[in-house]
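CORE FACILITY INTAKE
Project code: CF-77B
Contact: R.S. (postdoc)
Sample description: multi-component assembly, two entities in total
Requested service: structural model of the whole complex
Turnaround: standard
Below are the sequence entries exactly as provided by the requester. Do not edit them.
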Amino acid sequence: MNILGLINELIGLPELASEHGGMVDHMLEMVHWLVAVLLIGWSVFFVYCLIRFRQKRNPKASHAGVKGHASTHVEVAVVAIEAILLLGFAFPLWAVRSADFPTGPDVIKVRAVGEQFKWTMHYPGLDGTFGMTKPELISGNNPLGRDPEDPNGKDDFVYTELVLAKDRECIVTVSSKDVIHNLALHPMRMAQDAIPGSIADMWFKPIKTGRWETVCGQLCGAGHSGMVGYMEVKTQGEFDAWYKENAPSPNPEKSSGDSSEEGKAKS
Amino acid sequence: MGSGTSTAESANAHDHDDHHHDLPFLKKYIFSTDHKIIGYQYGFTALIFLFIGFYLMMVMRWSITTPDKPLPGLLAAFLNDSWLSDEGRVTGDLYNMFGAMHGTIMVFLGIVPLAFGAFGNFVTPLQIGAPDMAFPRLNMASYWFYFLGGVTMLTSFFIPSGAAEAGWTMYSPIATTAQLDEPNLWYTGQTFWLFGMVMLISSSLLGAVNFISTIINLRCRGMTWMRLPFFVWAMMVTGFLLLLAFPPLEVAALMQLMDRLAGASFFIPTGLNFTGAGSVDAGLLDVAGGGSPLLYQHLFWFLAHPEVYVLILPAIAIVGEIIPVNIRKPMWGYKSMVYAVMVLGFLAFIVWAHHMYLTGMGNVVSTFFQATTVIISIPSVVLLSCLFISLWGGSIRFTVPMLWALAFLPMFGFGGLTGLPLAFNFIDLHLHDTYYVIGHFHYIVAPGTIFGLFAGIYHWFPKATGRMMNSKLGHMHFWPSLIAMNGIFLPMMIQGMSGFHRRWYDGGINFEQIAGQVLFEQDSIFAKIFSLVPGIESGKTIEMIDLNHVMTFSVWILLIGQLPFIFNFIFSIFKGKKVETDNPWEATTIEWLAPNKPGHGNFLSEPIAYRGPYEYSVPGHEKDFSPQFERGPDGVILGEEDPIEESEGAQ
């Protein structure tokens, strides 16, 4: 048994399916070791004191008590370990998550839009550019309020599940139509609040194919606990086939559309 | 003076007590300005609210564990039938209402009033040798604002909309748009909640100002800063936390109120489009828009994180008083503890955004809040270490208050340490809002703070009533509570790691993959042990979701464990064993100089502090305790002419 996975294994974590997720687990394991060492150390000291210094055994208390500096050393050690965790792991790892977004044509882009009580995924289609959406256009047939006039949106499509490809980085842009939700993808060790009025990106790289539940991680109303979504990671081939099948072919008129199309990839 | 001279003193005390029998009943017990009576008022009211909060939780736990079964009559008896589904089950709406109100009641109406309002009021003036609080009328106003806030919150259960239902955090837009289908928005639980909060916050602010002024101005002769009992230090820091942290939430509550009632959009962005699945009609929400939901979160957590320390510090302080008495030696590292609590108080103000790691936080902000959050663990570890190390070399008496105080240490330690993983943004990607978080903070507040508060009740009961609480019943209260608390909260840590989220009214049955993760294989010994828990079939594989049965079973044990306490508490007030002396625990702090059931003005003679607060087993002294208030061979009055000696004297 791997000692560096012992606590995780004992307590249990859900299946892992993303590249950075291993590091999340690893860091959790390390912090739990610090917790365990402190807890066991304290407990042993505690129980020893309760037995050794009970009134019967030790009728006369010592005014001075502990004289050494052991506790200071422990304190310094804790500070040092925490500093390592922060500087060595937490800061750089979060920097990669929050600022170092992947670029290039291979990156899968999806918008995940929450509502009471489901998710809708918006794919940009073959052109890789999202069409405009407007809240006032939202209707039963147009759950995201996609603007039919926007040429970039002609090949966009929506889907009820989050579909991704194995070994391909993806950027999921999370937002909400009504109240705050949270798209929690436990196998990916990834989550992002969906806050209405703003958009937030998260990125990760699935390394395993499979189909998993997604969780709404923020109280969103009476149906909150039923807001089960699904994500599926397909192989590259399957993903391409699925994508082609769902994306309408790009509008032939696109080239003749107006040219002020920059910055359309937002809600 | 001291334990030896008690008989005469008790007689005196009786006379002393008599003189304010002159006051009419209303003035003496209801609209009293006496800090002790106000303390009792806070205490009784808060205990009632704790039990109400407990009841809400029992309904929630029933729903989590057995969502398919109707609520049993015992729990449903208090409920409006229309709140339950046709089959008598708990609905998502009811669960959300009870969840929001469980948090609100426990935090704002139960624990803080009991810890700060009751213990703070009763103990602080006595410990600093003051006749009363600095502003007695303000003190009374503080209680009555609290009472009105509580009544408002309770009333909201009985209006047609029911109480607030958007989590105790009341995030916008869910809180602003909840119950929008009611004909009169003034007359909804959400609105009542906001009004209730404004009153509770006003109450806390009045209390905080009063505590700070009292501690600074009303210390008796010789009570220099470094001779203050740790409890008083903690109360002062708590006072500053309340004073500085609550105004932003008061503002936030008023702004949300404007959003709900006056068409403002402080927290409502443009373009919200509802599906009609909630209480809002489908379509675009008709508001001005342009507001920021994130602003509310910042304002809320700017209060709510310091509030966590408001919940903890009084309990640490109570435990810090009880341990030296029962180990017959000074608290180890008194000065470190004082400095640690001040550092903690300061840092408490700059960690709030760690509750918002998943809002899409940038690198710089995240770096700041991760750093401060990890740094705040250091004074916490100092406090706890000092209390642990104090035990070394002591002569430990396992009295009932000491049992609670001792149990507090590992329980609070576990709760605090499990906060460490959550301090890191990166780990939070997995653990955010899971049961791991719920387990973590409940360990701090339930077997942590509440155990500290029970310790305090058993400890100061003789001072308040002149009678002891029964110690056998105390044991019958303690042991089931200790076991049950762990039975409730330890499984939460495990469920949380496996991805169970909070606020699922049906306990996760919709999430088959998460719920179905195997905990123990069918034929393992642990599976056999688990099958002893009612509700888990024997011979089946134990899945993560089965832990719900363990927790709910533990809750019933916890309930039964509180019965001896309720009986003991009420019985002992009237029929408990009378204490023979004013200082039954042979303690050193000044509250034990005052006669039992102190009358108005507290002390029969001027209290003077001659030494530090925890002088037990001083070499060369006759007795194993040298009270602050006894001159003895070596007592010195400090702080009047020669403040430089202060630091030596304090040790």
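Facility notes:
- Chain B touches chain A through 105 residues (CB under 8 Å).
- Residues 1-19, 642-651 of chain B have pLDDT under 50 and may be disordered.
Invoice: internal transfer
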